[in-house]
Design brief:
The protein contains 13 helices and no strands. With about 325 residues, it is an all-alpha fold. It folds into 2 domains: about 120 residues, no CATH class; about 180 residues, MetI-like fold (Orthogonal Bundle). It is flat, with a radius of gyration of 24 Å. The protein starts with a helix and ends in an 11-residue tail after the last helix.
């Protein structure tokens, strides 16, 4: 198992380097100059000498490859640079936003698990009955509604009309995280419960379920010990994908509710052309998805020992 995990990690390292190069290159080819933008917001006349001095101070006067190698070397030492806008270290700024994103991700995933897995199983067990039609209809509606619309509906009814929750997030607390996490959980649950339903239905149609029924084994026993275990691979895949997207931050929802996480930080950085913050966010997303893929692969190997790297025995 350890050898398998190390081999998978080594295969993912080149992907990280490719992402760093592409993201850094796209930042520089974005067609806008952060120095000129900052100078435009200052009062008075700005000379070309001042612009050149500011570019030299930020290291933007050097060739692209030199800038990239310098940035990558600092990144390897844990130095993400300094924000062009605030002048604060990027790492400390990023870490300060991380608790809000972690809380939002954890609460959203818990709500998604609580809703999608039981309803998906219940829908599969009651296939083509009233409960199944109701759940599938609700899933279709939930999956069709965009996050920003769901956010506005929840904000109107639960924050403005009922005054149960704050309209915008005041702090990193369970009360403030309720509406944004429910917004995300609605969309994810609507999508994932259909996947859970399809997976469970596929397992219920297999011969071993019919054989267990013929031998008089209780349906609940077969469901818990066989069907659910066989469905774990699909369920774990869905959960890990959710973790990756949520830890990366959900920019639209965070911006609507003013949730002070990494998603909102990235949107603000894009608006202000704060390239070090944007690059830190891209690297965070890349690392999260690489780790999520690694954990998923290792969990596959644990749940199904027949899975081998490249189809060979390890």
């Amino acid at each position: 198992m350890k050898h398998y995990a190390v081999k998978r990690l080594l295969q993912l390292i080149p992907i990280l380097f490719a992402i760093t190069f592409l993201s850094y290159g796209m930042m520089r080819l974005a067609g806008s100059d952060v120095v000129e933008q900052k100078m435009e917001n200052t009062d008075g006349t700005v000379s070309q000498e001042m612009i050149d001095a500011a570019r030299e101070e930020l290291g933007l006067d050097k060739p692209f490859i030199v800038q990239y190698v310098t940035w990558l070397g600092k990144l390897a030492r844990g130095d993400m640079g300094v924000s062009y806008v605030s002048g604060k270290p990027v790492f400390s700024t990023f870490v300060s936003k991380l608790p809000a994103t972690l809380l939002l991700a954890v609460v959203s995933i818990l709500l998604t698990v609580i809703v999608s897995i039981p309803l998906g199983i219940w829908s599969a067990v009651n296939q083509n009955r009233a409960a199944d039609y109701v759940i599938r209809t609700a899933s279709f509606v939930g999956n069709s509604l965009p996050n920003f619309f769901v956010s506005l509906l929840l904000m109107y009814f639960f924050a403005i009309r009922l005054n149960w929750f704050p309209v915008i997030s005041r702090d990193v607390s369970l009360q403030s995280v309720a509406l944004p996490s429910i917004t995300l959980a609605i969309a994810m649950s609507a999508k994932y419960l259909r996947q859970v339903r399809a997976t469970v239905l596929d397992e219920l149609s297999k011969d071993y379920v019919l054989g267990a029924k013929a031998r008089g084994v209780k349906f609940q026993t077969t469901m818990m010990k066989s069907v659910m275990k066989a469905s774990l691979v699909t369920i774990i895949t869905l959960l890990t994908l959710s973790i990756g997207s949520l830890l990366g931050g959900t920019a639209i929802v965070e911006s609507i509710f003013m949730w002070d996480g990494v998603g909102k930080m990235a949107v603000d950085a894009i608006n202000m052309r704060d390239y070090p913050i944007i690059q830190a966010y891209v690297m965070w997303m890349a690392i999260i998805y690489v780790l999520v893929n690694l954990i998923t692969d290792v969990s596959y190997r644990y749940l199904d020992p027949r899975i081998r790297l490249g189809g060979t025995e390890q």
